[in-house]
Design a protein that fits this description.
heterodimer; A: about 325 residues; mainly alpha; MetI-like fold; 2 domains; globular; B: about 290 residues; 14 helices
Chain lengths: ~325, ~290
């Protein structure tokens, strides 16, 4: 939703040529206050972003708490090969990709369609609908997953009560690995579609009314206006949101998956990020987990770069 | 003169309205169900009899929540974390975003790149955890407040907002001998209420609902956030329900958890759910600031 796109550099941006050291020092001193304003952020970034990046070397080491990050012995790519050869490797990759691709396929178009529908509603009813649809965004994942557990509970869940009314069998959905991806994705749609539609609604509200007037003169129906005016107007936003999403294909956040896991559904519910958490922080297998995480991170960065490149070629919009 | 035509209700309107009503029902139903369960007789809830409206109205669940020490401690902790994190985020990100609008600041490009890299690449969970531990922040409240108080996404929103303000404001102040810092605090910030609203919205909602940060960085129950406590109650109730042959103690625990489970869900979510409709104007604003001039 927050778009980190860089605008084209304006001609005035870099026109101050520093031709002597003295002049530079003078400018630095004159800008002292501005550096002071950047200081807290710079300190944070140094301590909590770049220091951990330096600490990433443990992925290539056999990290021992007593020896510290720099003192631990190097072991090359052994952690990585261990991971690639491990029994879980295929399953983890598959589960991660299934969840993220499924989320992309369902979770991406729905907010767009929703925005198009909301845009056709008028006045107070539109506002009311929006307010209701935003609500799930403000519910924590802990509560969301608890709601799932309660509603799908085999003994007291509403869903099973209704199934039984229709003569169907009760089912323990949360413990069934086959249902996990569906539950994960559709509960995500439930929670995120309203919030996700905001950016498209904002784009729709910026459409020049003259376009609609012209369409009216030509006798266009409302559906035609949606197809020929609204959809094209949304295209730039859609493309940028798509790049952002494609860059995240290899990453599935651990919080919700972790909360939805139980002893029975791990077969489909173990993803790379939850595996990193368990191996690293629960089993204190720091080096190995750091290596798995690094592997995942490198894929993510590569995907962002590729998606960015493609969109630059195709549409002239890019992140950087 | 054009007179406004009476609006005809077409089939199109009907279809769109029906879709909207279905969506409202789908999104609203689970929320209403939780609310109904929270004020229903636990016996009715346990046998799956509450389908929409409360059955056997009782406020026992809420009584149990408000007399439960761990929940109340968690609540206090969450309020503390949310308030501190929000304030710290504002102190870190607003000035940074403002300074980055200063186009002739030596080193601005480099600093921007340094910040941007953190959006796409990070040390990851394990090295960050080890660093936090090395700083002596493990199992401290400071860890929760500090971690994540900077996010380049939000700084970009700040930068976009500030760069859309007229330059003359600050130039005039500086001619009058006002230092940049003073100009920022006295002139720029009072004009930035919309931006502050957006950042507060993002940070506070995120922190209020966050679960993993306390799970990873906090050990003492006394410092745990509400979400962690909530999760413990839920899983306890669940495992107890799974073990039929569990002892009296477990059964008593399960009864108690079943009693306060829904009420706890409501109590933990209500602050945000009550406040957000009033902040709705900031949602669009945040998007607009973030995308239009990003």
């Amino acid at each position: 939703m927050k778009n980190p796109f860089k605008k084209k550099a304006k001609p005035g941006d870099n026109d101050v040529v520093v031709n002597s050291r003295g002049k530079l020092m003078l400018r630095v001193r004159r800008n002292r206050d501005y550096y002071l304003m950047l200081l807290p952020a710079l300190i944070y970034v140094a301590l909590f972003c770049y220091a951990p990046m330096y600490g990433l070397q443990i992925a290539f080491k056999n990290y021992k708490m007593s020896l510290g990050v720099t003192g631990s012995p190097w072991i090359g790519f052994q952690n990585f090969t261990d991971f690639f050869n491990s029994y879980y490797f295929g399953t983890l990759i598959k589960n991660t990709l299934v969840l993220s691709l499924y989320s992309l396929l369902v979770g991406f178009p729905i907010p767009i369609i929703l925005a198009l529908v909301l845009n056709e509603l008028g006045g107070k009813f539109k506002k009311f609908t929006q307010t209701i649809l935003y609500a799930p965004h403000f519910i924590s994942l802990v509560v969301l997953v608890s709601m799932l557990n309660c509603m799908l509970s085999p003994s007291q869940g509403v869903v099973n009560t209704i199934l039984e009314m229709f003569g169907l069998e009760r089912n323990y959905f949360m413990a069934n690995p086959d249902y996990f991806p569906h539950l994960y994705v559709w509960s995500g749609v439930w929670q995120g579609m309203g919030w996700g539609a905001i950016i498209y609604l904002a784009a729709l509200s910026g459409i020049d009314p003259a376009l609609y007037e012209a369409a009216d003169m030509d006798g266009a129906t409302r559906l035609q206006k949606i197809i020929y005016i609204n959809l094209p107007a949304l295209m730039p936003t859609i493309i940028i949101m798509l790049i952002l999403r494609v860059g995240q294909i290899a990453s599935v956040g651990y919080e919700k998956v972790f909360l939805m896991q139980n002893d029975f559904n791990l077969e489909t519910a173990e993803v790379i990020s939850t595996y990193v958490y368990k191996r690293g922080l629960v089993n204190s297998n720091y080096s190995f987990a750091a290596a798995v995480d690094l592997f995942n991170n490198v894929i993510n960065v590569t995907l962002v770069l590729i998606a960015n490149k493609i969109s630059k070629l195709v549409s002239d919009t890019s992140l950087f | 003169m054009k007179t406004k035509k009476l609006k005809h209700i077409t089939a199109f309107d009907v279809i769109v309205t029906i879709i909207a009503i279905i969506l409202i029902a789908v999104v609203g139903y689970p929320l209403i169900l939780v609310l109904s369960n929270s004020v229903s007789d636990p016996e009715m809830v346990a046998t799956g009899q509450v389908l929409l409206f409360p059955k056997g109205f009782t406020l026992e669940g809420y009584k149990a929540v408000f007399t439960d020490n761990s929940i109340m401690t968690g609540y206090a902790n969450t309020i503390f974390y949310t308030v501190c994190k929000t304030l710290l985020s504002l102190v870190v990100m607003l000035p940074a975003g403002y300074a980055l609008t200063r186009t002739n600041l030596p080193g601005r490009k480099v600093i921007t790149v340094i910040f941007m890299i953190t959006m796409y690449f990070s040390g990851g969970l394990i090295p960050t955890f080890l660093q936090v531990k090395a700083y002596g922040l493990y199992n401290t409240r400071a860890a929760i407040v500090i971690l994540g108080c900077f996010s380049m996404y939000n700084v970009i929103i700040c930068r976009s907002f500030f760069s859309s303000m007229p330059h003359e404001l600050v130039e005039a102040a500086e001619i009058d001998g006002c230092s940049p810092m003073k100009a920022f605090v006295r002139i720029i910030l009072p004009l930035s209420k919309a931006l502050i609203g957006v950042i507060v919205l993002y940070v506070a909602v995120g922190q209020w609902n966050s679960y993993m940060d306390c799970l990873i960085y906090i050990q003492d129950t006394a410092k745990m956030s509400l979400q962690v406590i909530l999760r413990r109650i839920m899983t306890l109730a669940q495992t107890a329900a799974l073990m039929d042959e569990a002892g009296d103690y477990a059964a008593a625990m399960a009864d108690r958890e079943a009693l306060l489970r829904y009420a706890a869900m409501v109590v933990s979510s209500v602050p945000l759910l009550v406040v957000y409709p009033f902040l709705q104007k900031y949602f669009d604003k945040g998007i607009m600031i973030g995308s239009v001039k990003g």
